[in-house]
Design brief:
alpha/beta; 12 helices; about 280 residues; Rossmann fold; binds guanosine-5',3'-tetraphosphate
């Protein structure tokens, strides 16, 4: 996993800018659980008006009500946006169709000017772990290609033909996430976009417990059989007892349990960035 330093960001930015010159459209991948925190802070500056299709990834893990609010918000801002579940409900044709729609004017102009028809060229960008290599593999219909999660991995670029009408650059652009405040950092760490060590598991677990209490009390009640009129220390003690955590460090063990169950999708469909709080 990458640690982002200013040098890395400058290099990633330069590389993406170079590749942008040769593409017609960008697929901007956002994590549907954190549509705000997973946005690169300089994305619009980077793209400089290049057409884009926003793909809300991992919608199978996110709260459908929140995903709808976020999607409508992006649409109000005039962005084309699709919800993607790359693991089970993948709609490859919809992504192809939307790309061609966004570029319809350009395709028509090129045709009129008698330019040799070629597929429109797309490139994927997004923060680490958002699903870039999974999406490439699904579009290409192949099993697996690991795409190194390192900024500045240089190798020959290749076009992969998705259909006769769409070609994809095989190396996605790895973007750095926002680093603007503690909450954004926590949301990125909880979803695996940044290293765990940046925020302690104690802080992450404590945040998650309070968050679930506020926004997903039923998920919490159901999973751990809890009565939410009790205080956090009481809840933690109850979970510890149920799970047989006897040692004095039971609080840490409960926080680690919460984190691992969240990350293994055992707590239900959860969106961390709340639309009404994060919209600007
Ligand atoms: P990246 O290239 O942007 O860094 O992300 P990558 O495709 O490697 O995906 C990161 C993790 O997210 C992978 O899981 C992948 O399976 C998962 N993922 C991608 N898209 C979706 C989606 O739409 N829904 C769900 N639920 N998960 C998705 P992993 O646990 O790291 O390992 P593995 O599955 O690659 O073994």
């Amino acid at each position: 996993m990458i640690q982002w330093f200013p040098g890395h960001m400058a290099k990633a930015k330069r590389e993406i800018e170079e590749r942008l010159r040769i593409v017609d459209i960008v697929f901007e991948l956002l994590d549907a659980r954190i549509p705000y925190s997973s946005q690169n802070p300089l994305i619009n500056e980077l793209l400089q008006g290049k057409p884009k299709l926003v793909l809300l990834m991992k919608t199978d893990l996110a709260d459908p009500k929140e995903t709808k609010l976020w999607r409508e918000n992006f649409q109000r801002e005039d962005h084309q946006v699709l919800e993607v579940d790359a693991l089970s409900g993948f709609n490859r044709n919809l992504i192809i169709k939307s790309s061609l729609e966004i570029l319809a004017d350009k395709i028509e102009r090129d045709r009129k000017r008698g330019l040799k028809a070629r597929g429109v060229r797309a490139m994927i960008v997004g923060i680490p772990n958002v699903g870039k290599s999974t999406l490439i593999n699904r579009l290409v219909k192949r099993k697996a290609t690991r795409v190194a999660n390192k900024p500045g991995v240089t190798r020959a670029q290749q076009w992969i033909s998705i259909t006769g009408e769409l070609e994809l650059l095989d190396t996605p652009g790895v973007l750095w996430p926002k680093f603007e405040d503690h909450k954004v950092g926590i949301h990125l760490a909880l979803t695996g976009a940044i290293r765990d060590e940046i925020v302690s598991s104690h802080d992450l677990g404590e945040y998650l417990l309070n968050f679930l209490r506020s926004y997903y009390p039923d998920n919490l009640k159901e999973r751990y059989n809890l009565d939410l009129k009790f205080s956090n220390p009481e809840l933690i003690e109850k979970i510890a007892q149920d799970r047989g955590f006897m040692q004095s460090d039971y609080e840490e063990r409960v926080y680690n349990l919460l984190l691992s169950e969240f990350r293994n999708n055992l707590l239900g469909r959860i969106t961390l960035d709340r639309f009404n709080q994060e919209e600007e």
